[in-house]
Amino acid sequence: xxRRARKTNGHDSERAAAAVRSFWSGTISFGxxxxxVDLYSATRPRQKSMKLVDRDGNPLGRRYExxxxxKRLANDDLVxxxxxxxxxxxxxxxxxFESMAPEESRDIELHSFVPFEQIPPIFYDRPYFLAPSxxxxxxYHLLSEAMQRSGRVAVGSFVMRGRxxxxxxxxxxxxxxxxTLRYADEIRPPKSIGLxxxxxxxxxxxxxxxxxxxxxxxxxxxxxxxxxxxxxxxQALAREKERKGKDVIEQYGLEEEAPEGGAQVVDLMEVLRxxxxxxxxxxxxxxxxxxxxxxxxxxxxxxxxxxxxxxHARSRAARSEAKLxxxxxxxxxxxxxxxxxxxxxxxxxAALLNAILRAx
Amino acid sequence: MPRAIxxxxxRLGRRRVPVKLYSAVEDRTVHFRLLHTTDLAPVEQRIVRxxxxxxxxxxxxxxxxxxxxxxxxxxxxxxxxxxxPAASRDVDLCRFVARELLSDQWYDRPYYLGPDGNSxxxxxxxxxxxxxxxxxxxxxxxxxxxxxxxxFLHDGYLMMSTLRRAxxxxxxxxIEPAKSAKPTxxxxxxxxxxxxxxxxxxxxxAWHNGYRKRVCALIEAKARGKKLEPVKPKRRAxxxxxxxxxxxxxxxxxxxxxx
Lengths: 360, 259
Description:
The complex is a heterodimer. By secondary structure, chain A is an alpha+beta fold. Among the domains of chain A are: 19-50 and 100-191, Beta Barrel (Ku70, Chain: A, Domain 2), CATH 2.40.290.10; 291-360, no CATH class. Chain A is built from 13 helices and 15 strands. In chain A, the strands form three sheets. Chain A has a seven-stranded mixed β-barrel with strand order 1-2-9-12-11-10-8. Chain A has a two-stranded antiparallel ribbon with strand order 4-5. In chain A, strand 6 (78-83) and strand 7 (89-92) form a beta hairpin. In chain A, helix 12 (329-338) runs parallel beside helix 13 (349-359). The N and C termini of chain A lie far apart (54 Å). By secondary structure, chain B is of the alpha+beta class. Among the domains of chain B are: 6-27 and 85-163, Beta Barrel (Ku70, Chain: A, Domain 2); 182-198 and 240-259, no CATH class. Chain B has helices spanning 77-83, 120-130, 185-197, 210-223, 242-258, and strands spanning 6-12, 15-23, 33-36, 43-49, 61-66, 71-75, 90-98, 107-115, 134-142, 145-154, 157-163, 170-173. In chain B, helix 3 runs parallel beside helix 5 (242-258). The chains are: A alpha+beta, B alpha+beta.
């Protein structure tokens, strides 16, 4: 019952391709069409998570004790209480919590379809993948394709682990992703922090900064800047000690206790190959950014979504006018959406082409 | 008013912009204390040996990095200390890239940046960034930890969001639906119609955390010695022919619009 921090899964030396946790099963309600899905974490834990041991390497764990009796408590002996301002304790039972967020509804209810670029990054919370779980994946593909064509994402809400989440369902490369969003009242407006009113900037210093930005401008992300140096140094130290045979714990007994709430570790690629497409493949951004040949392929493809670099590839293609003229209207619409061209939904093909050429 | 959590200096080539860092999000979660069911005394946590259940004091606790399921290496406190990055107030802007290159999956926690001292350099950077569609990738050390972040504008102010690391962010390719799972042209057309019939602009103020509200209401009711009606689970959507359901949904969406 008490929700502890999720245990991470950093101890596989070979690191399975995409071992992530499975969190939730339910249904997306797209109008009257139900799309059964399973929800998986879309991020891997960092490889720096360490376990608590004693000086001799014996694994340690947490135990709950009653502060009054000093007695060891099992999960069944625990209840949650809210302390009011006057110090009064209001006990809320598990049944009451459950009734506040009836998990049996098991629905991601879609409220509306909005242009993705209208959701500021400040709202992004945690990303998950959705895999079809029913007999047929047809309705899943249908929603994915329809959203991709419209350039919109679905905003909805659902209940998971006794909490209600606001979520944006994003279609990318034929896979549906669920990015949980912060609620508006969880975001501080600049005023509440007391940031000063905008003052007119000195144009000389604006120009100097603009020059620096231009000098630092690159076409691609750099993997060296985005890698996990903290984890790398920890791993290096541990490996070195292992070679020297210092402080090594054998038979560590790391078999994880059954995770609470039923979150299972699964291989995401396996899941998607089974449920979605035999040729599905998964890559971390680290691999995608390192793999130069993949980068070239992406840059050469015109209008096809492919990984984190896909949009970029499209904007590069946009520089080539000749290629653009051969593009279909829906390809142009996608490009226009990537370039944040306003009023694109009302443009015909020629107007779209012009706007894209102007924007680049 | 929330206080700045850190002070630093953005470094863009030879230029510097002194800034203060403020958390941009507010924890609205209703927090509970864990209590012992029978006497409602607060619960305390003890760190114990898993096999014997004996408590282990802080000074005897160590951290071990697992290298496989069967072995781990203890990293001693003094060794961990040598790995700590050198303290610095510099936030290095490594590069500027098109915003689209970072998908939502990278973003972790957002912070406002405010000017530290003279605000001219700060608002100059705001103006310089405003005319581009770029974001900056930054690295810095804060409280003995390394961070990677994205610098961009929000509401006319500089914002820095910490980023997840490159080996955490996953993406898929090669999705080709089997023939039997491919939607027909007609189904796609209807689905697109349904999308556009429920299309709108993103309005974050339209959504409220209903669960949080209900929990607060329950606490209040119980404090006054009252009971609260449980929330009824929602009905499941209808099942049947895909195209039929799409048509019915579009009709329902239109009706809502007229009403």
